[in-house]
Amino acid sequence: MPELPSQARVAVIGGGPAGLMAAEVLSQGGAAVDLYDAMPSVGRKFLLAGKGGMNITHSEPALAFGQRYGARAAQVAPWLAGFDAQAVRDWIHGLGVDTFVGTSGRVFPADMKAAPLLRAWLQRLREGGVQFHMRHRWLGWNGEALRFATPDGEREALFDAVILALGGASWARLGSDGAWVPLLRERSVPVAPLAPSNCGFDTDWSEHFSSRHAGAPLTTVAITAHGSDGAPHKRQGQFVITAGGVEGSLIYALSAGLREQIAASGSATIWLDLVPDFSAGKVFEEVTRPRGSRSMSSHLQSRLGIKGVKSGLLRECLSAAEFGDSARLAAALKMLPVTLKRARPIDEAISSAGGVRFDALDANAMLRAVPGVFAAGEMVDWEAPTGGYLLTACFASGRAAGLGALNWLTRS
């Protein structure tokens, strides 16, 4: 790579994984880097994500991995080509942190914790000369200068290039509040509306069902739902009944298509397979088996293990006549329709969709409307399910933006 102009200064705004990775690439490339964040410390959402076990990436084959980005797979592919799942693991190992692959294929740090990894990373960044400015909220521009609200009042600073890595709009209390959207729109940058992703949904359960089963997990279940491509998709996994709806990993994996259906039609339907280990023929055989004096509920528990929240779901979603018809009941055990009415608010979501449109970026991840300003991470218009895919693309996009800025600086 050609040598950078002397004293090239770059601002990175946002201290999440994408911003930190951009800062690392820039400092290693010879730039003087100042990283700004509105919060008292960096990586707050990263640390929260690792609270129950830091899932850093996924070990599945590259083709399947890339398809996890759905409608944006083609746009995300160049990021992953430069920094894929194995590169993420190698990078973590370079920080002195070992990793392992769990039974689900997910990749974790050896101690399952995010904090040691972040500490080692920040130490390396500081040793590389990155300057951190906390409690500095970006307010936009005054001419070419960046404006910041700081504890000491408003400040301005000029830079040769800027990386924006401000996150989406989920978990506002951790810094991702979407406040950057109007600032970019003022500069004629096309921004797709931000929307919840990896989110729960409302079903408006009855009080009777909600009071008895809110918080109950469904650990052996499958869902059939229509994806963003309009085709039905079936996934097995687990989710949780909430007071007003559903949430959990299986729901999150389907959330993009469900959210789009609700936006288009006002609701979305999922079909639950409450007995995924049994064929439809076997279920019909067991439901219609003579039960003597036993109630149907007792019969279902005895023959198919249907009890608790699964039994409650049947009563909630079927009429008395449907429950009393053996053939219709057997069919419902394999395809129980549940209507989802609303996505939960974006601030409750694990991540968000929408953001800076890909056609607003050039091949270097630079905003076409604002030369010298680059975008990375969740503030760009892509989404992915949980399982390490979100974090991998954030790392990879931050690296791409950092390299893009270095390329641009050498040509300027």
TrEMBL record:
Its cofactor is FAD. Gene3D superfamilies: FAD/NAD(P)-binding domain, HI0933 insert domain-like, Translation factors. Keywords: FAD, Flavoprotein. It comes from the Bacteria. Residues 9-402 form the RsdA/BaiN/AoA(So)-like Rossmann fold-like domain. Pfam families: HI0933_like (PF03486), HI0933_like_1st (PF22780). Residues 196-351 form the RsdA/BaiN/AoA(So)-like insert domain. This is TIGR03862 family flavoprotein. It comes from Massilia mucilaginosa. The lineage of its organism: Bacteria, Pseudomonadati, Pseudomonadota, Betaproteobacteria, Burkholderiales.
